[in-house]
Write a structure and sequence with these properties.
By secondary structure, this protein is mostly helical. It is 61% helix and 0% strand. The chain is rod-shaped.
């Protein structure tokens, strides 16, 4: 016995008057639309993340370039005193 046949009554929307193929077709189209919408939102999120990483990396590189000390990005070590 199929699961759909085991459910005797639906309290949400009564679709018993519709042909089964119409119910399945509309459900399939609704699922396809939701998947398509999620793909578009994921694509938008990935593009935003891509540009945030790109702009962040360029800004970081520019900051390091501007704050560079005499051509050397590393700070110079302090002078060491010799103890006699």
């Amino acid at each position: 016995m199929f699961f759909a046949e085991a459910v005797a009554k639906s309290y949400f929307i009564d679709l018993s008057g519709w042909p089964q193929w119409v119910v399945v077709l509309v459900g399939t189209l609704a699922a396809v639309f939701l998947i398509w919408l999620l793909m578009k939102l994921l694509k938008l999120a990935l593009w935003l993340f891509f540009f945030l990483v790109l702009i962040g990396g360029l800004a970081w590189a520019a900051w390091l370039l501007v704050n560079e000390v005499s051509g050397d990005a590393k700070p110079k070590p302090a002078a060491v005193k010799k103890v006699n």
